[in-house]
Amino acid sequence: MDHFHLHCLVPGGVLSNDRETWTPSKKNYLFRTQSMVKAFKIIYIKGLRQFYEAGDFTFPGETAKYETPAGFNRLIKIIKKKK
Q1: What DSSP character marks residue 27?
Q2: Is there a domain that residue 17 lies in?
Q3: pTM
């Protein structure tokens, strides 16, 4: 069974030195969420392309359809549509 996903942890605050209190950041801290999502997706897809072009991917089972250049481009289109 093929199951690909990514877990990310981006803290929006800080833990106190005594590790007892969490202080959340301000709502406008650093980046707007949508801006960060867009930037991350661009970087992620660029990395996928680099790995693919270097031949560092294997496509077992149901993912074999993405092994060809045309198939991989279809996969990238699917990823780009994901929210």
Answers
A1: T
A2: no
A3: 0.63
